[in-house]
Amino acid sequence: MSQIPSFLVVWSLMAATASAQLVNIAWGSNTEGQKMVIHNGSDLNPADFTVELGAFQPGFNPTLANAADWEANWKTFDAILNDDTDPSDDFKYDTGGSGVFFVGAAGLDGNQESNSEDATAGEKFSPKPPPFPAVTDQAFVWVYNKTAVEADTEWALYTNLAGNGPVSGDPWIFPYVYALSQPELWYLSTADTAILGTIHGGLGSPDYTGEGYTSGPAANDSVIRTHRLFPMPEPGTWMLFLLGAVPLLHRQRS
Questions:
Q1: Domain for residue 26, yes or no?
Q2: Is 143 helix (H, G, I), strand (E, B) or coil?
Q3: Which of 36, 109, 192, 206 has minimal Cβ neighbours within 10 Å of its Cβ?
Q4: Domain that residue 132 falls in
Q5: Residue 53: alpha-carbon gap to chain centroid
Q6: Is residue 1 included in any domain, yes or no?
Q7: Has residue 79 been placed in a domain?
Q8: Tens digit of pLDDT for each residue in 161-177?
Q9: Phi, psi (deg, nearest 5) at residue 147
Q10: Domain tally for the chain?
Q11: Tens digits of per-residue pLDDT, 204-224?
């Protein structure tokens, strides 16, 4: 009679135990207001934005060039809205008037799925644990006013890739849930890489500034600056376009 490999026995026991486990992930900016701005240096209004914690499908590497594909490849673990009804989530101006903050929390269960009401249904996070060839998901925070790629789209996307943020912390990898899993604390102060937008005022590391378009004054004292995906044409550019179109229309009518 053949024996079951010992590592499979151990993994099966861990998986059975994990089904009753939950890893709590607390995340956000801070519990106090901080300066957040949009591409031109104006204050970010929480009423206009949503913040999500999630991951991209395996093999998808988010860049400005493939921005139109982000939404199709994104899986939401948790989301924070300005008028969020989830008591674990909050996104608003600090009552002291010192800025904006957002905080959220959700659990990763033994099926590697989120228990958040905002999670993408049926999606798993870090779905294949050791000892098999592991598939782990890098966690990202996505700040946006809309997911569609349009002229006024403002985004920031940041993460912790290597633990090199202003405050040390382990990289943001969705953990495999097992009996001894510990809670995760993924706050902006430990983020070390901006894919789009700017974090920590862009000071301290070139990785704090990502792709995208900015204008207006510097915002070195801001913790988040969203970038506009593409610059809007100047009014003069539109006028030149319209003036050039008039003769064309006239010839077509002739």
A1: yes
A2: strand
A3: 206
A4: 6-253
A5: 5
A6: no
A7: yes
A8: 999 999 999 999 999 99
A9: -90, -20
A10: 1
A11: 999 999 999 999 998 999 999
